[in-house]
Design goal:
By secondary structure, the chain is α+β, with helices and mostly antiparallel strands. 57% of the residues lie in helices and 13% in strands. The chain has 13 helices and seven strands. The protein has helices at 2-15, 18-27, 41-47, 49-55, 62-91, 98-112, 116-125, 130-150, 159-168, 192-200, 206-213, 235-241, 275-304, and strands at residues 30-34, 37-40, 178-185, 224-229, 253-255, 258-268, 308-310. The protein has a four-stranded antiparallel β-sheet, with helices on both faces. It has a three-stranded antiparallel β-sheet with strand order 2-1-7. The radius of gyration is 36 Å and the shape is elongated.
């Protein structure tokens, strides 16, 4: 009886569609061998799930199909790199406790203002389960730890390098043109042109004219309204003092329905942001650049010393 039963099973197996069997074999086929690890077609399809979720139900053009295929190739290369990183993580016995992942997820939710349910929904929209998301997050934190161990500790930025970078990028640290401005806001019975002429003829200084005639701000302080960004000035203000030297008097303008005169007391151009204010930023940029260079060299060496075999 047993022999008969086994015979039926064997016959059913023979009668199963060959295409289904071939598809299963294809889906589980090995794409790449990386030292003692492998990447299968199934692994690649799993990694592509978030991408597939975004294009699901859409009709893709030939160009989009090509872009998707290019993305598959890029994803496979990333997976190879990830395998190499995972091997290094195992080699250096880097372990990430679950509570670290919990804390990272908590921070993500707080930064985005999401509830637990909203966060789960966001992860679903990326085509992942929470288990898959946690796995990917753990892998990312492990890589950061590895980089800290292998790369960051070998990078140093000196004050001399910071100063050299600051000088090389002076244009990036030029401050906006500024003007220290004074204003005379005139009453209706005083003509702006007459006051302007008296100042230019030397009968009065701008400060004396402000004290005598102005009904605006700062009249007892030479009409000073402080330092202003050139770009923040209204068009008529800029036109009034354009080309006027420091201490000169601009063409009359109308302010709040009254005639007014402006004087650019001091014009400041080509000022640099002080090095001390940007030192930390420059240091961080140089540090990142050096880390990338060291990591690239480290990873190139790692690839060269590894056995990577594409099965296609």
């Amino acid at each position: 009886m047993l022999r008969c039963f086994l015979g039926v099973i064997w016959l059913l197996a023979l009668l199963m569609p060959m295409s289904a069997h071939a598809e299963e074999v294809l889906y589980d086929s090995i794409l790449v061998k990386i030292n003692d690890d492998i990447i299968t077609l199934f692994d690649l399809e799993e990694e592509m799930k978030p991408i597939y979720a975004k294009v699901k139900g859409k009709t893709l053009s030939s160009d989009q199909e090509k872009q998707l295929e290019d993305l598959r190739k890029q994803t496979l290369e990333k997976m190879i790199n990830d395998k190499l990183m995972a091997q290094e993580i195992k080699k250096y016995q880097i372990e990430i406790p679950e509570n670290v992942i919990d804390d990272e997820i908590k921070n993500m939710k707080e930064e985005r203002g999401l509830s637990d349910e909203q966060f789960v929904e966001m992860v679903k929209e990326d085509g992942l389960t929470m288990e898959e998301f946690r796995k990917r997050l753990k892998s990312m934190i492990e890589k950061q730890e590895l980089l800290g161990y292998m790369v960051h500790s070998k990078v140093l930025v000196t004050d001399t390098e910071i100063e050299k970078e600051y000088e090389a990028r002076r244009d990036d640290y030029l401050m906006e043109k500024m003007v220290e401005m004074s204003i005379i806001l005139l009453p209706p019975d005083v003509a702006a042109q007459e006051v302007k002429k008296r100042i230019e003829d030397g009968e009065l200084t701008f400060a004396e004219a402000a004290a005598k005639y102005s009904i605006g701000p700062g009249k007892d302080n030479g009409g000073s309204i402080g330092e202003l960004n050139w770009s923040d000035l209204a068009d008529d203000w800029r036109q009034s003092i354009e080309g006027i030297p420091e201490g000169g008097v601009g063409a009359p303008i109308t302010v709040q329905g009254k005639e007014a005169l402006l004087s650019p007391v001091k014009i400041v151009e080509n000022r640099l942001v002080p090095l001390e204010e940007v030192k930390d930023s420059i240091s961080a940029q140089l540090m990142e650049k050096k880390r990338n260079e060291v990591f690239d060299a480290y990873f190139d060496k790692l690839k060269q010393s590894s056995v990577i075999i594409y099965m296609d």
